[in-house]
Amino acid sequence: MHVSPLETNVKVRNGRIQITNMTKANIVMRLVLWALLLFTLIGPFFLDYGTITWSTAISLTLGNLKMMFLEPAFHQITFATALKQISMTLALAFLATILGAVLSFFLAIFSAKNLAPSMVSNGIIAFNSFIRAVPTVLWVLIFAIVAGLGAIACVLGMMLHTIAYLTKAFAESFEELEEGTIEALRASGANWWHIVWHAVVPQSSSYMVSWIFLRFETNYGVAVAMGAAAAAGGIGFELFMASSFYYDLHEVGMITYCALIVAIILELVSLRIKRKLMAKS
Amino acid sequence: MTEANILRRKKWRMTGVMIVLIVLTYGSAAITKFNIIEGLFAIPSTLAWMINNLVPSAETIENIPKVLKRLWETIILSVIASTTAAVFALLFAILGAQTTQFNRFFGFVARFMASIFRNVPVIAWALVLVISFGHNVVTGYFALFFSTFGFLVRMFIETIDEASSDGVEALMATGATYFQMVCKGVLPDTMPQMLSWIFYMIETNIRSATLVGLLTGTGIGYLFDLYYKKLDYNMLGLITIMIIAVVFIIEFTSNKVRKVIS
């Protein structure tokens, strides 16, 4: 029987034309989705819940959340202290970001594929994924053993993750530099440092500033957490004291609102920066 | 304006930015009493200390099952917090994205709620929940759930708005209903990207779970805190190495999956 070329490409099942194409990507995606669903359904049965009375715990939580969000008040500290502690948190985040950015710049030059030999570049990438694999709080606590709990351990711990993140971002924007530009500079007798300072840096400086700010936003959140978990000071530490030491949920609410407002402002600014970046590229 | 003028202005602007940054750095160092020189010298000495001390000894090897049990708890927690949060985030993202919102007001409410959830610090959720739920996995789960939800809504909205306005317009022109437009137009288009955000969140949550665990006494974070306070550095080394191994395995799988589906 003669089959027209058109019909061989049309799959029919139960009298209906199949419009979804089962490509490899589609199959893998479905498998992954099913696997995640299965894990989500089975996973909770492996956990040890101890003795928990759900009804009292939930009503208690709702009461606590009401106290926290609807009746915020300062008791142990004043608004001025809260402001001071927020500037402390911002300062910690800023130091980690700026020191990390300077170090990342140099690491990124040596990890961009078009500027450095592949062995150096792969070495830096491997080192960064090692840094990323250890949670920030563990880095901070490990630094604290040597340098003592406080600003130094906190800044250094946050700085390592900043380096891992920014090196990748910077290197990617360096790699966008056209091969022709580098070749032309090299042909005119420019050495490696000339290429970096006069072609790579001017072209990617606005990208770098944007990435640095985006990371600063993340680091603010991390700095709040480190204040509580590693006693590094700042608004996070006050949050920890108010909830675990004074059990004062009204104050927890007030401090949360202070931290929240700063975070939302930072987020709005970074959203603007992102839009600008997207418009450019 | 001549070429030279533009270049000169650019130079001045860069110099201005540099000066502001240096002033801010010194200001921050003064506020936090951070000594930059001392700080930078702490890095090599800490690395040397790590190589000498954070090495699991023969006795600590016996504790591997104990660590594995806690680690397993942390993995389950991160995965189910990410997946359940993703389901809710998808609904909110469809309500909040420019291309799929059916009402400006609901869109705003969805975006605003998500913003609150992601910007309230994770530790604030953890510290409040631990008061009522106690040192329990449920505390960790909800703390991770809230922050993951907020973050995923933001990322899903960006994904929907970037990917699908043309397809949506075409579907609407053929007379498709709202639900057909979402299910047949938006979801298939954005699914690979959303899935890779979920994987990103699972990776991130393993690290956040360590932090939350430290504060709420659950999972691997609790174990780390316990041996940290006991000054048992061999065990700390073992725990750190095992966390690294788990993060590597998850990163490897998610990279593989991402490469195939996108």
UniProtKB/TrEMBL annotation, chain A:
Identify the InterPro entries for this entry.
MetI-like, MetI-like_sf
What's a single GO CC term here?
Answer: plasma membrane
Q: Keywords in UniProt for this one?
A: Cell membrane, Membrane, Transmembrane, Transmembrane helix, Transport
Membrane-crossing residues? 27-46, 90-112, 137-160, 220-242, 254-273
Subcellular localization is given as: Cell membrane
Q: Which Pfam families match?
A: BPD_transp_1 (PF00528)
Signal sequence bounds? none
Residues annotated as coiled-coil are none
Q: Which PROSITE patterns match?
A: ABC_TM1
Biological processes annotated in GO: transmembrane transport
Q: Which residues form the ABC transmembrane type-1 domain?
A: 86-273
Give the record's membrane topology. Answer: Multi-pass membrane protein
Q: Which domain of life is it from?
A: Bacteria
Return the similarity comment. Belongs to the binding-protein-dependent transport system permease family.
Protein name per its UniProtKB record: ABC transporter permease subunit
Q: Which organism is it from?
A: Lysinibacillus mangiferihumi
Automatic annotation (TrEMBL), chain B:
- Which keywords describe this protein according to UniProt? Cell membrane, Membrane, Transmembrane, Transmembrane helix, Transport
Does Transmembrane helix count among this protein's keywords? yes
The protein's matches in PROSITE patterns, at most eight in alphabetical order, are given as: ABC_TM1 (PS50928)
User: Which chain regions cross the lipid bilayer?
Assistant: 12-31, 75-95, 116-134, 209-227, 233-252
Where in or outside the cell it occurs: the entry states: Cell membrane
Topology in membrane: Multi-pass membrane protein
* Domain ABC transmembrane type-1: residue ranges: 71-254
Against SUPFAM superfamilies, the record matches this protein to:
MetI-like
Q: Gene3D superfamilies attached here?
A: MetI-like
Q: Name one Pfam family in it.
A: BPD_transp_1
Which GO terms label this protein's molecular function in UniProt?
ABC-type phosphonate transporter activity
Can you list the GO cellular component terms from the UniProt entry? plasma membrane
PANTHER family (alphabetical): ABC TRANSPORT SYSTEM PERMEASE PROTEIN P69, PHOSPHONATES TRANSPORT SYSTEM PERMEASE PROTEIN
What family name appears in the similarity comment?
Answer: Belongs to the binding-protein-dependent transport system permease family.
- Write down what this protein is called: Phosphonate ABC transporter, permease protein PhnE
Q: Upper lineage ranks?
A: Bacteria, Bacillati, Bacillota, Bacilli, Bacillales
